[in-house]
Amino acid sequence: MGKFPEGFIWGTATAAHQVEGNNTSNDFWLMEHTEPTMFKEPSGDACDQFHLYEQDVRLLKELGFNAYRFSVEWARVEPEKGEVSNAALEHYRRMTAFVREQGLTPIVTLHHFTSPLWFAREGGFAAEDGPAHFANYAGIMADVLGKDWGQVCTINEINIPMRFFHDGMLGDQARLAPFLKAAQKRCGSDDFSSFFIGDIEGAAEGMKKGHRLAVEAIRARAPETPVGVTLAIQDEQAIEGGEALRDAARARCIDAFLDITKGDDFVGVQTYSRSIYGPEGKLKVSDDVEKTQMGYEFYPEALEATIRYTADYTGLPVIVTESGIGTDDDTRRRAYVERALKGVQNCLADGIDVRGYCYWSMLDNFEWMLGYKPTFGLIAVDRITQTRTVKPSAQWLGNIAKANAF
Ligand code: GCO
Questions:
Q1: Model-wide pTM > 0.85
Q2: Which long-range contacts (CB under 8 A, 24 or more apart) does 277-280 make?
């Protein structure tokens, strides 16, 4: 298949709440421990990466990767409004410096689904001053990490709540109402709004504003930092009669968010599969196709389509900030990534500016409402001892990273 461009990013990705463990000051922790809950199990210790990150970064280096995408937990940095934890800032400064010292680029996400509880209690991004609070936090992180971090993703999958809201996964607000009410009661505020429940449409507008304000705050303090936002973009296809519905869904849940990337340095594309629209709306995934643990169609070719769509729509460089598969068959993980990378090479061959590929995820981790059942990791984690076990796909992808070719 040939070489990738000089300096191509080869990374793996994680998120603080999914791997660190015991993020007790954020909104998800409250919702995980409030009945009724939409979580299969609480995040608990996760992968204890708050304490074990050095061994994990050393593993990535040994495997051959040149980047690590991780997120900073805002709730650790600012556990109460205006009260900044120097210990947390020091932790993330040490972690980012360590990633750099190991020769990997730290790709830092500032918001990956979770928010400080005080922020959610006040209405989150839907609150009038929500965007400004986020930009203030982004500025603090630019001051502390600005000399070591590489690319910065302000908000992870800024568009996914709207997608779930309109696709029915979260759109059935009646089904979610008991979880929201329980969280509001538990935290003593009817304004409680979190990433997946609450004022989804208000929060979407707030996140767009928050992204722009955060980019300004980062550029004012760390002008060399390449900054962007990441989107959940599936390959949105249509069969005859489904085109208008597909176009409308894509306009509402993708284009409306790509529109706020004007002036950014890159767009983070996160793609797992495709959706197919018919005259009645999105089709159920057919029973006779291979599916992943998430119920998605096994369709790695989606990535080529979403890179092309995003590059064409924005004219910006693309970093694949997430691509991966939940599976307990590691040979299917390798087959998936091989086909996804062929799509990346097709885009590169056509002159599209793809800067890198980050596999989701480094570790089997806390898959949000589904708990620990889905296993996306290149590395397995023993839930009791936290022992890491490198899977064959990790060696295989690491060798591609080392050769910068396959
Ligand atoms: C997302 C998030 C990740 C998920 C991953 C697998 O895209 O939902 O960025 O946190 O764990 O995508 O579903």
A1: yes
A2: 277/236, 277/237, 277/238, 277/239, 277/242, 277/243, 277/245, 277/246, 277/249, 278/238, 278/239, 278/241, 278/242, 278/245, 279/240, 279/241, 279/242, 279/245
The residue nearest atom 13 of ligand 1, judged by CA position, is 367
List 70's β-bridge partners, or say none.
108
pLDDT tens track for 376-399 = 999 999 999 999 999 999 999 999
Distance 18 CA to ligand 1 centre (A): 9
**Which atom of ligand 1 lies closest to the CA of 156?**
9
Parse the chain into domains and list their residue ranges.
Answer: 9-403
Task: Read off the DSSP letter of residue 378.
Answer: S
Mean per-residue pLDDT over the chain, rounded: 97
Our answer on whether the CB atom of 322 is closer than 6 Å to any ligand 1 atom is yes
> What tokens were used for 312?
């064409």
Ligand 1 neighbourhood includes 15 CB (under 6 angstroms):
yes
DSSP secondary-structure letter at 3? B
Specify the fold of 9-403. Answer: TIM Barrel (3.20.20)
Ligand 1 mean position to 240 CA, how many Å?
31
